[in-house]
Amino acid sequence: MLISQILKNDRGGQIMLAVLAAVLLVVPVLNLVVSNTSPLHVPTYLVTLMGKYLTYALLAVAVDLVWGYLGILSLGHGAFFALGGYVMGMYLMRQIGDRGVYGNPELPDFMVFLNWKVLPWFWQGFDMFWFALLMVLFIPSLLAFVFGWLAFRSRVTGVYLSIMTQAMTYALMWAFLRNEMGFGGNNGLTDFKDILGFSLQSDYTRVALFICSGLALAIGYLLCRYVINSKLGRITVAIRDAESRTRFVGYKVEHYKVWIFTFSAMLAGVAGALYVPQVGIINPSEFSPLNSIEIVIWVAMGGRATLYGAVLGAILVNYAKTVFTGLMPESWLFMLGALFVLVTLYLPQGLAGLWNTLKTNFGRKREVAA
Amino acid sequence: MSEGEGAHFYRQGALDTSHKAILYLEDLNVSFDGFKAINNLTLYIDAGELRCIIGPNGAGKTTMMDIITGKTKPDSGKAFFGQTIDLLKLSEPEIANAGIGRKFQKPTVFESHSVAENLELAMKGDKRVWFSLRAQLNGEQQALIDETLQTIGLSEQYHKLAGALSHGQKQWLEIGMLLVQKPYLLLVDEPVAGMTHQEMDRTAELLKSLAGKHSVVVVEHDMEFVRSIANKVTVLHQGSVLAEGTMDEVQQNPRVVEVYLGE
């Protein structure tokens, strides 16, 4: 079958997807079927928390594709995630209808508050789910395509490119903070009621969103792995390792970069779109440069250029974040920094690399014993 | 392709060597921050020729290769591939696909790919993004890889990572990558640096066997090696041609002796 073909030489991916499948099957049952007096019951807030981690994992996979395999350190992937989130937020705002504080059936609350009389042109169509879904794919990709086309054609690489991606997300943050932009300014978009007619507060909707996040992660993972296994993937790695050589062999390096970068941005956008209905808000802080840097730390932590390492890193770091921000809110940033330093010094291949080292060492010992 | 004396059908993209020469460099000038790396350089390479280019450090050998392959744009002058293809208007990948292959001074192979994958990536064919996503090796291409590995003596290293090869083997692999590109013109920068004598002899054999079918330009410091392969030698000095002729002729040229061989 196609899936087993894609995962043929990917032990880590097989394990990761098997665990993911098990979680996607068991957690809904433990939430919806098992009574909430039982110790096995999984409370809904936990389902949503896990759903959020899964969207982060998809985002990390997207970053690993461009950083691990193409060699572009993007410090702006949070922007694509946030744009996907805003698109979904716009759909959810339109779903509120006349149930807002001001009860205006045509305009979201913040527009009424700003004394706007008509819906701006760029909000048209977002009451339709299929249109919003298309835009989730299209808007982040468009930004990535234009940005990539300009940057890669002028052969901007390395640190300069990283700084540009960082500047891009920073500029977007300030733009979205402005009320006149028409995206709710500082407060962003929130107070969502329902999606496709299902209440966002219901356990069933929450579980459905959790499952969608898991499926999106699985599909995104398989697509990335498919690309990496193809000749296109081998060219991508060749560009990472010896860019000018690749050019002299006859490949238009900038075309390859633009397409991989755009595809990665599309995955990040999908992750953002699934994130927003689960956390219930999207605001300009999602564009903050710090967010994008955190994603890179997840990937470094899990292990670059493995894909499954990115998933592992995203989930573990965010779990630690949830635990420690609960215990000692001020200490988290220091811990994150310390974690990054430790990983860079002692685990340059990340956790996935640690696993591989242990495996080879163990294998060697066994050989010696035999 | 020529219709009587001097008449041509102009076809951009098709290599036309009907006037014998495959590469025309005329009045090229390049300067970097005031330093004239290439100074009124005029040089012709004939189709099927094996030409060696020698010259002291800073003579402009590598810059000349950079111009031919599109990496550096000259300040003035002309560079044509055959009668019709204007190299100065093309990008590096376009020049590579037009049929000019280049081997770098420092061996550059794709280190995290296997030896066979290196050849697969270098192979002549459709190199666009969407094609690459679906591309599979066909029997003919597989045969070409096997045959080339035989030629460069790396058949046993088929699955080995290129990064794990010895220096000499990397040089060979890079020559192999040139071969599967099926270029009309090969530019080879210091092919025997870091090779043992035995490996050098094999390289000399290989380069000689390529001439005729291909045109080969070799830049090399090793005089013994140059003598063993070259019919015609061009000496570069301060960005222009100082002398041209057989090895014996240039070695007896007093100006050459003065700037280079006499050192």
CATH superfamily of chain B: P-loop containing nucleotide triphosphate hydrolases
Fraction of residues in H or I helices of chain B: 25-40%
Mean model confidence by pLDDT of chain B: 88
Main interface: chain pair and counts: A-B, 23 and 31 residues
CATH architecture of chain B: 3-Layer(aba) Sandwich
Regions of chain A with pLDDT < 50 over 5+ consecutive residues? none
What order do the helices and strands of chain B follow?
EEEHEEHEHHHHEHEHEEHH
Task: State the separation between the terminal residues of chain A, measured CA to CA.
Answer: 37 Å
Secondary structure category of chain A: mainly alpha
Estimate nothing, just give the exact number of structural domains of chain A.
Answer: 1
Q: Please state the overall shape of chain A, judged from the principal axes of the Cα atoms.
A: globular
Assembly annotation: heterodimer
Overall pLDDT of chain A: 94
Q: Give the percentage of residues in beta strands of chain A.
A: under 5%
| Biggest pleated-sheet summary of chain B | 6 strands, mixed
Task: Tell me the number of strands of chain A.
Answer: 4
Tell me what the structure shows.
The complex is a heterodimer of chains A (370) and B (263). Chain A is mainly α. Chain A has one domain. Chain A has helices spanning 2-6, 11-32, 44-69, 77-96, 109-113, 129-153, 158-177, 203-229, 231-241, 243-248, 253-279, 289-302, 308-327, 332-346, 350-369; strands at residues 189-190, 194-195, 198-199, 281-282. In chain A, the strands form two sheets. A two-stranded antiparallel ribbon of chain A has the order 1-4. Chain A has a two-stranded antiparallel sheet with strand order 2-3. In chain A, a hairpin with a 2-residue loop joins strand 2 and strand 3 (198-199). In chain A, helix 3 packs parallel to helix 8 and helix 12 (289-302) runs parallel beside helix 15 (350-369). The mean pLDDT of chain A is 94. Chain B is of the alpha/beta class. Chain B has one domain (8-261): P-loop containing nucleotide triphosphate hydrolases (Rossmann fold, 3-Layer(aba) Sandwich), CATH 3.40.50. Chain B is 35% helix and 24% strand. Chain B contains ten helices and ten strands. Chain B has helices at 61-68, 92-98, 115-122, 129-134, 139-151, 167-180, 197-210, 223-229, 247-252, 254-261, and strands at residues 21-32, 35-46, 50-54, 76-81, 85-86, 100-103, 185-189, 215-219, 232-237, 240-245. In chain B, the strands form two sheets. In chain B, strands 6-7-8-3-9-10 form a six-stranded mixed beta sheet, sandwiched between helices. A four-stranded antiparallel beta sheet of chain B has the order 2-1-4-5, with helices on one face. In chain B, a hairpin with a 3-residue loop joins strand 4 and strand 5 (85-86). The longest helix of chain B is centred in the middle third of the chain and has 14 residues, at 167-180. The N and C termini of chain B lie far apart (47 Å). At the A-B interface, helix 9, helix 10 and helix 11 of A face helix 2, helix 3 and helix 4 of B.
